[in-house]
Amino acid sequence: MILRSALRAGRSLRRVPLVQLIVEHGEPYRAPHRCATDTQDGEESSAVLNWWGDTPIGHRYQLRAYSPAPAHVRDEKPLDHDDGAVMADKEVNRMKKMRVFWTAQQTFMEYLHVTRGLSFPDAEHISKHSPVFVSNLLHQVKDAIKDPVEGDEAAFRSKVKTKEIRDERATKALERLFRYYPINEFEPFFESMGLKPSEYQPFLRRDLMFLSDDETVLENYRVLCNYGVMRNKIGQIYIGAAEAFSFGDGVLASKLRALEDLGFSKSTVIKLMACCPAVLTCGPHAELKIIEWLDDIGIQRDWIGQFLSVKKSYNWRKMVEVPQFLAELGFDNEGIGKLIRQHPDFLLDGSGNALFRAVVIMLKAGSGKGDLFNLFLDFPDVQARSFARNIQSVTLFLTDIDVSEEDIKKFVVANASMLGSARVKKANSILTYLSVGKKRLWKIIREEPRQLMKYTLGLKVSRLPPCDEIAEKSLKEKVKFLKNVGFAEGSNDMNKALKAFRGKGDELQDRFDFLVNAGFEPKDVSHMIKVAPQVLNQKTHVLQSKISFLVNETAYPLSVLVGYPAFLSFTIERTKARFLMYDWLRERGLVPPNFALSTLLACSEKRFFKYLVLKHQKGPEVWEKLKKEVAADKNAHCASEDDQHAIVS
């Protein structure tokens, strides 16, 4: 039973620290990396590059989640591509803008239509949507279409005439190529269906060269086209159900009608084929077992079609576990149907994985069957993956303000529906905005949990009213400290510092003394506090690590902090990563020496990337590598500190 297994797993997970579970399951929703092309594809790409010359490496938003409205696709930055593949893609895109490329497409279309006998729509689509293949054709005739050496041919003054002559040479060269060196027509055919060379290579057969050699493939291709499937999406179906393209006359059309007879509209059938091609080969009843549940819970079968995406794939057999799980929780069919209508992502996001990930987190927090039932009765209006991420943010927030694990579990289980509705800010930010200590903040949240929803992302946080006696005593200590270091009582500088300070007066004095002992003059430290009073909100060991980094690992003297004390406000990870990137650029002569600290640190991440990282073509790669190294050093340091605490205890 799904619920019994989940509860059993939850009991075993309770022996694992809650924060560890969050780290293991945190941020699981990043887009998958694109696959790099294989060796053969790389060789073809290099051929294109060798002809056209090397070029330096340069570099969907939906209205709402699970909306039937079409997604607006934006260009995405390629991930994990080999440099050669990225260069090849850029080169092909550049070639597509050239006149000779258009000429090659026209010649290739005439070859397919006139010589090979393909219908005009098929020939036109294949020629216009196989840029890699056309580029390789041009590479094979590159010598024949080059401009003649001066003296071999009369020089034309007209640039238009020169281009026309070049087009004629390209056309004749390609016609000779087609006449004496037959091409494998399946390569541009597969590419025009939306497949990359690395994807269609396994489907190329040695005994087939021409599309006419396998009429069934072409006939079934036309059946899908006539049904309404976009030609450049058919490749996705071919990869998942290549056998369907071997069906005899009328078989594929009958399978499409069978899907419609199940209650699906034509648009839903097209989406089903794209995201689950197996319905054409294994049969809809064997693959789409979820439709039986849809009938039982009172949802029309075609309802699910509006939420399907052709860019995703679904495990329909695993999807059945979602209504089964809800039934075991205690929901009747009507309740399950209502819940699925309100949250279609329960079924479709990872085929139920996102929902079960949220359930695992709640089980880890100590939720039982009754708690889960109540949670789903009042589930917030967010996706399951967002719910899980929001619960994680609350758990990490409570951990950062030193709440015990047992108290965290009780708090999360008791307020799960509310806590899962929004993502809270980080603890450091909230403590700074509120100007409050950790114990008082936890007391406020424990007494009024809804107060935590005022600290979510996107909301402005206002300071808490002071606690009479404690606040008055703390204020007197801070005023006394500021007067001792040279501030005039009631001045703007003092008011600014009082608003920025956190902690007690004696703590501020200790941190002031530490800076003096580090090598600053008392008057310089006073000046630094006037400019950036938030510097004294940090513990002495944090200040020491930042000063040590500046003095020992950079070429800057300690005195620069007098002019820019805000340096001490930035995290050591941000500072270290930016300095390492600056040093890398300086070694290559791309930036002047002795950059101002404010120039390196005060600018946003986006601006730093634009004006410094992009100064070198390998800058983005080096920048990502440096950030990962700095993060790894931080994690290793934290782990070593935990080990030391464990040994001491």
UniProtKB/TrEMBL annotation:
<keyword id="KW-0809">Transit peptide</keyword>
<comment type="similarity">
    <text>Belongs to the mTERF family.</text>
</comment>
<dbReference type="InterPro" id="IPR038538">
    <property type="entry name" value="MTERF_sf"/>
</dbReference>
<dbReference type="Pfam" id="PF02536">
    <property type="entry name" value="mTERF"/>
</dbReference>
<dbReference type="GO" id="GO:0009658">
    <property type="term" value="P:chloroplast organization"/>
</dbReference>
<dbReference type="GO" id="GO:0009507">
    <property type="term" value="C:chloroplast"/>
</dbReference>
<dbReference type="GO" id="GO:0003676">
    <property type="term" value="F:nucleic acid binding"/>
</dbReference>
<keyword id="KW-0805">Transcription regulation</keyword>
<dbReference type="InterPro" id="IPR003690">
    <property type="entry name" value="MTERF"/>
</dbReference>
<keyword id="KW-0804">Transcription</keyword>
<protein>
    <submittedName>
        <fullName>mTERF family protein</fullName>
    </submittedName>
</protein>
<dbReference type="GO" id="GO:0006353">
    <property type="term" value="P:DNA-templated transcription termination"/>
</dbReference>
<keyword id="KW-0806">Transcription termination</keyword>
